[in-house]
Design a protein that fits this description.
Pfam families: DUF5753, HTH_31. It comes from Streptomyces lonarensis. InterPro entries: Cro/C1-type_HTH (IPR001387), DUF5753 (IPR043917), Lambda_DNA-bd_dom_sf (IPR010982). GO terms for molecular function: DNA binding. This is Transcriptional regulator. This protein has a six-stranded mixed β-sheet, with helices on both faces. By secondary structure, it is an alpha/beta fold. It is built from twelve helices and six strands. The chain has two domains: 82 residues, Orthogonal Bundle (434 Repressor (Amino-terminal Domain)), CATH 1.10.260.40; 145 residues, Endonuclease, Chain A (2-Layer Sandwich), CATH 3.30.870. The chain is 51% helix and 12% strand. The chain is elongated and about 65 Å long. Helix 4 runs antiparallel to helix 5, helix 7 packs antiparallel against helix 8 and helix 10 runs antiparallel to helix 12.
């Protein structure tokens, strides 16, 4: 792809690449000179400038340092990253950080907010092997999750109610050691004064009200935020009549799920059989 073929309006990453190229040319530098200053290959830099490759946070920070742009490329990277997330998720995360109550329901894997770093890394590395993301993006994904988890340990932490399908604790992720650590973290989570942890057992059958993961937030003004997603789509909702109905369904799920004591006992039993 040559200069005249690159359309900055064709995609966010093309616009990002064009901005890098503009700043480089304004400095009078060739690609190999900027690449050397950023500790990247000229081939990698060319791929960014022509929109063929997504930049990473490390790339953005190195560009800011080399070009002395005072955080410009990191800010643009964060804007682009938000644009690449599922629809509604960036807005949801903003609400999540200040919610007073969080109600979580997950199927298949432990909810992100409750994942250990090792467990989260295994999931991210699996996405790398599938070709969904590259290695640096995997690191960023884990770091982003850690940023979200800070909300759980702020000065006035929210009340967190988590209901997990039984598959979340029986599906081995990362092998015995990673899973043992993750289950131990869930047990410690259940001991906190501001948390409730429940397992929705397989025997719940058709009485399970949700077929997809959902998050429900209660904000300081007592309004509700619903976030639900599939493999490829996310949806955030605040206003519709569906939100109170989902809250009622969540209450029904909690009533049908195992008590926290029985859930802890199940997790302990599963944990004993792992190692």
């Amino acid at each position: 792809m040559n200069l005249k073929e690159l359309d900055p309006d064709s995609s966010p990453q093309a616009a990002y690449g064009a901005l890098v190229r503009q700043w480089r040319e304004d400095r009078g530098w060739k690609q190999d000179e900027l690449a050397g200053r950023m500790e990247y290959s000229s081939t990698h830099l060319s791929s960014i400038e022509t929109g063929r490759k997504l930049p990473t946070l490390r790339f953005a920070r190195n560009a800011d340092q080399a070009l002395r742009t005072e955080g410009l490329f990191e800010r643009k990277w964060r804007e682009m990253r938000q644009g690449s997330l599922l629809e509604g998720f960036p807005q949801y995360v903003e609400y999540e950080a200040r919610a007073e109550e969080l109600r979580l329901y997950q199927i298949g894997i432990v909810p992100g907010l409750l994942q250990t770093p090792a467990y989260a890394r295994v999931l991210a590395e699996s996405a790398v092997r599938r070709g969904d993301i590259d290695a640096e993006q995997a690191v960023e994904r884990v770091e982003f999750l850690a940023e979200r988890q800070v909300a759980l340990v702020r000065d006035r932490p929210p009340t967190v109610m988590a209901v997990m399908d039984e598959s979340c604790i029986r599906r081995i992720v990362g092998g015995p050691l990673v899973m043992d650590e993750q289950l131990g973290a869930l047990l410690r989570f259940a001991e906190l004064p501001n948390t409730v942890l429940q397992i929705a057992p397989f025997t719940l059958g058709e009485r399970r009200p949700f077929n997809l993961p959902i998050n429900l937030l209660t904000l300081p003004d007592r309004s509700l935020v619903l976030y639900a997603e599939s493999q490829t789509q996310g949806h955030m909702d605040r206003e519709s009549t569906a939100v109170p109905q989902m809250l009622r369904n969540y209450h029904q799920l909690q009533a049908e799920a195992l008590s926290q004591a029985d859930s802890v006992a199940m997790i302990e039993q599963v944990r004993k059989g792992i190692l």
